[in-house]
Amino acid sequence: MAFRLGFDVGGTFTDFALQDERTGQLFIGKCLTTPDDPARGVLEGAQALLEERGLGWTDVHQAIHAATLGANTVIERKGAKTGLITTRGFRDVLEIQRQLRYNIHDLFLDKHPPLVPRNLIAEVAERLWHDGTVRQPLDEGDVRRALALFQADDVQAVAVCLLHAYANPAHERRIGEIVRAQAPHLALTLASDIAPQYREYERASTAVVNAYLQPLMARYIARISDALAASGYRGAWYMMQANGGLSRAALMADMPVRSVESGPAAGVLMAARYGALAGVDDLIAFDMGGTTAKACLIKDRQPATVGTMEIDRLALRAGSGLPINQAGMDLVEIGAGGGSIAHVSHGLLQVGPHSAGADPGPACYGRGGRRPTVTDADVLLGYLNPDYFLGGRMHLDRAAAEAAVGEHVARPLGLGLDQAAWGIYQIANVNMERAIRAISVEQGHDPRTLTLVAFGGAGPLHAARLGRSLGLGRAILPAAAGVTSAIGLLIADVRFDLARTRIAPLGDLDVATLNAVFGELEVQARALLDATGIAGERRIGRSADMRYAGQGYELEITLPDGPWAEGIHARIRAAHDAHYAAVYGYAEPDGEAELVTWKVCALCLPPRVELPRREAATGGLATPKGRRRAYFPEAGGWTDTAIYDRDALRPGMALAGPAVVEERESTTILLPDDTAAVDEYGSLIVTLGGAV
Amino acid sequence: MTTTDIDRITLGVVWGGLLSIADEAGITLRRTAYSQAVREGRDFSAALFDHRGRMIAQGDFSPGHLGSMPSAVRNAVAYFPPDTLQPGDAILLNDAHMGSGHLPDFFLTTPIFYRGELIAFAVNCAHHIDVGGAVPGSQAVEGVHESYQEGFRVLPVKGFVGGEPVADIHRIIAANVRVPDVVLGDLRAQRNANRVAERRIGELADRYGLDTLRACWEHILDHSEREMRAAIREIPGGVYHAEDYFDDCGRDTGPIKLCVTITVDGDDATIDYGGTDPQTRSGINATMNYTLAYSYFTMKCVTLQNRLPHNEGCLRPIRVFAPPGSVLNAQPPCASGARAIMQQRIVDLLLQAFAQALPDRVIAPSAHWANPIFGGQSPRTGRRFIYYEIIVGGSGARPHKDGAEAMCTSFNLENIPCEVSEAHFPVLIEQLAFVPDSGGAGRFRGGCALRKDVRMLGEDQRLTNLAERQRFQPPGLFGGRPGALGRTLRSPGTPGEEVLHSKGHYDIATADVVSFQTSGTGGYGDPLVRDPAAVQRDVVCGYVSLEAAQREYGVVLDPQTLAVDEAATARRRAELRAAGGEGTPPRCPLV
Q1: Closest residue in chain A to residue B400, using alpha carbons only
Q2: Contact B415 A109 (CB under 8 A)
Q3: Helices B180-208, B210-233: inter-axial angle, 10-degree rounding
Q4: Strand, helix or coil at B318?
Q5: Is A430 a residue whose pLDDT tops 90?
């Protein structure tokens, strides 16, 4: 019972990391995701990894899971058919949205198409005043009529969002009772449960995304639970949340919105850790998998975060995605992965956003894919070794890659095969470069002060060139990059963020009220921590979104731990004024401070397990395991290139590009003039050549 | 240091840095503001100017403000030459001809010093919720004919010294506005925005040095000019003309004719509003700065779009003329408080002219937004309130897709959440919804009209209405039909229903409901070739009625299943084609 298992289910691959808590030793694995039933891939892959080590499920006491399922389901519009119940007169809030033009000079921009079409939005007569008092009671007949409409249209999930229900959830709860009584098979989300914060569009959007994901996520979690139980696993299992903290998986079935970007969040955590181990504070975490690429800025070891996440952005601009009232990492995500399909449109070569996924996958997988992908280009350029993919467990079909690239790219564009493959590689890079620029250069962060941490199955294949074109000086390419997010799951804390809107001037709140409202959130938070069953040091912190009365936006102010005594008012006021002046230049001494959203963050810090260190070599240059031709235009095209075995690299060794470094779960490319040193954790610390 | 010495990475970082500073200044303004207009509606802008007063970066905010900023900075510096300025000073002005054409827009210009040297200016503009004058909100159309009736006017003065409010100035402002706490709060938010910009510019200078920064500015302006010229060269050379009519400027007034002639010659473009009607004796008048702002904005939309950030370099190849004394170049002491309602018409007019040259880059005319303002007494607080509302309809249909629903084309605002309005004002929003059958039919459909019904629960209430497209429909393009007219109703759907004039002011009794309905937007292309599946989807979702599907699109659906009856559709379309003449003729030659 000394092992912990992390598994990250991506669009193309499912990744595993297994750690022996006694020694810190890590074992990793990777298998194709099984989209028809992801649990099958999880079970088979985990089983294989355990058997390889002579272990069984009884040796594992904690299983931790992350999935890109949520975000991918929204992006691909594959969620449940969802209906929305809302207050009479407000059916169109979901489509009207906030009306922001995220590009002011673009006459052709579109807003996000709602997940619920207009004909599945039902209005019910009821109305609350802003303070939660009832103006018009709920018409329960309207609720039943809404359900009849939904059932006639085979709706599978229902979201409920009524005006001002953050202040009084009674009507939403009554609707919930009716839905559960009359249509118990429907998944149900009440906005007042999932996001009790004011501003009706953002709250409705959060509730709808949650309902849209619920049936799928509930099935998925139940399926994995059953499969784990059937395999003999007796421990608890956990899921990563978008805030970078763990929760018990069963708790997430009803709130899938909390786990929408959980896989990438785990990767970002791990990137920050690799940076810290290498003594680097300012990083770009870059994760390229089979389906998408994600990037997140890390400054002073802290990943950039947002209070309201957006998923499925239409452009690399804030305001172009679906808002969800959920704190998370500020990730930029684009449809560029190893499986992204290359195609010629209007005479121009384009790559993505569509992905061949795991099934059929890239042409070279030989599973029936006929369309050329980035991975096919990587094979043709000599970067990927067809005989050593997944350590040789999967053979890549070079001829199929040639046929696909030839037919769909080379021929239409009148190019040779090499040029066509090189074109695909470059276009994929340019797309990713633009995404990374949006979170770095365009925010005024100088790339020369940032270090790229590249991971994901395809990350290290593209990192060196991407880093070079962005003007970065350095990259950290961790070992086992193909499963970095899975490893990140093993270092995460348990964390719950709870929030409730209650607008009141600080002066009107006595100490008892302050303690009562925060106390209630703390009770909920403790119950969630208890439900995880994980032991460790606990921290429960209070904060509040505050403003001066009359303003519309708040700052999050960290407050002293509770319970509070008399005299707390002056401390809260001082904390708010000081933070306000630090951010905006000046405080408002004559203003009245007001609490808007009350927040509790509950953490449980499990004992930290260190990453394994590698035995140092006597130093000197690494020895290649072989050579083959690979394509490097700066060296004149096809170049005789050294191939290294990543597992044979020892701390202290150095190597120079051009080079291909192969390991079981990923392949790294170093360009001519790049130099790399191996650190004690097996990471390649690369000094990028050609840097300005 | 010359521009050639700047490496591309440094240039990219400095440029990106300047844009994000302008954005951050705007975010600061919004987050520390008190009025709904600024903090929810985003009725503000922020930009950076170099020490010579050239705009080098702007945030993605209101085009009307941004286009007027060069003039505001020029005038601020004319009154306060650099040697009279100290760190922490901020120059305030709201003169309509120096600024953006009406008194509610306050410009605040802050010199940015670096190691004792004035290197740049941070500038922002915010729409203030009230500047006194005849009506709450200071945007009357009727009954005003000179600016002195519209509120108080500020020629450039130092509003802040050493970062602190100049008490005398702020006291004068407080005495002249209906909601002094809100106005002075927003003014301090404007100060905060410039302070944040100043701090961040200092960090950039620390990192790269002043010489590099200045070299980057030169490069940004020159590069932008080159790109704009290249984009203009892509427009077929020629002379393009359009006219459109503005409804009126109050009860018992007639239409106002707007004309434009665009001449594209090589890499120069001239926009000439000759033929436009004279200025009016009402609050509807655009000053030259305002007309310039929307001319530049539209030009950028059909050329560089969002490919390049906007700055003064983009403006260099464009010349704009409007006859002095016309409604698009009104002369002092004209009233102009309500001029914002003209912005969409200027954009639509220009797009109709550009349609002849660039049919694939324009969209059909959009809905006008409505910007009514209520003043009154709040029973909840016992104090005066000013409830600023903004209702935005859709964008016109586009060459390859439908118009966007509920999306403005001339402005960059956000709507005000109903929950926020109700939390702050004695109002109850009864409805916020699309109006079916209001989008202009076309191969691509225009956006639907948007309707917002507001129950007013205050006392001693007065409404200043401000809306458009209630007499002249937004035309369609290339065979598309016009969008439905907008309207304003009191007590809609009751026996006492009453039409209110788009520019009238009215006393509003406690518990009265006023319904604001924008117009629909123009369609693009022949509705008889619209994909029947798209018409079916519109009917299923309730944007288009079963009857209108037949009448406008010739698409016959089964009333029960809503399936397309293909044979009946073919017959109906043939009939409509044979009948010809139905609907409006194409506004522009088909290409």
Answers
A1: A108
A2: no
A3: 100
A4: strand
A5: no
Structure tokens at A567: 């005299």
Which of A94, A95, A96, A99 to mutate against chain B (most B CBs within 10 Å)? A99
Name the band, by pLDDT with cuts 50, 70 and 90, for residue B581. Answer: low
Q: Print the domain residue range for A418.
A: 340-427
**Domains, chain B, with CATH or none:** 3-225 (3.30.450), 363-528 (no CATH), 529-579 (no CATH)
- What CATH code is carried by the domain that includes residue A525? 3.30.1490
CA distance B505 to chain A (A): 26
Give the whole-angstrom CA distance, residue A109 versus residue A116: 20
For residues A565 and A416, membership in a common domain is answered with no
CA distance B58 to chain A (A): 12
For residue A691, pLDDT beyond 60: no
Sign of the torsion formed by the C-alpha atoms of B268, B274, B275 and B277? positive
3-state SS assignment for residue A131: coil
How many domains, chain A? Answer: 5
* DSSP string over A491-506: TPPEEEEEEEEEEEEG
Put simply, the answer to whether A89 touches B453 (Cβ < 8 Å) is yes
| pLDDT reading at B585 higher than 60 | no
Supply the ipTM of this predicted assembly.
0.93
Give the C-alpha separation, B110 to B231, whole Å: 34
Distance of CA A453 to CAs A156, A278, A557, A643, Å?
41, 11, 31, 22
Contact B250, B503 (CB under 8 A): yes
CA B308 → CA A143, A167, A210, B15, B418, distances in Å?
A: 50, 44, 37, 11, 35
List CB contacts (< 8 A) between A441 and chain B. 12-13, 16
From A210, A241, A259, give the residue that closes a domain.
Answer: A259
Q: In the 3-class helix/strand/coil scheme, how is B465-493 assigned residue by residue?
A: CCCCCCCCCCCCECCCCCCCCCEEEECCC
What are B24-38's pLDDT values in tens digits? 899 899 989 999 889
Give the A:B interface size as CB pairs under 8 Å. 189
Write b or e for each residue in A58-70: b if 16 or more Cβ atoms lie within 10 A of its Cβ, otherwise e: ebbebbbbbbbbb
Which of A107, A120, A135, A330 would you mutate first to test chain B, the one with the most B CBs within 10 A?
Answer: A107
The residue with tokens 């288009």 is B544
pLDDT, tens digit, 9 for 90 and up, residues A111-126: 888 999 999 999 999 9
Task: Give the three-state DSSP class for B578.
Answer: helix
For tokens 């007309």, the residue is B291
Same domain, A102 and A147: yes
DSSP string, A300-364: TTEEPEESSEEES-SSSSTTSSEEES--EE--EEES-STTEEEEEETTEEEEEEEE-TTTT--GG
pTM of the model: 0.91
Nearest CA in chain A to B11: A441
Q: What percent of chain B has pLDDT over 90?
A: 85
To test the contact with chain A by mutation, choose from B7, B18, B32, B184 the residue with the greatest count of A C-beta atoms within 10 A, namely B32
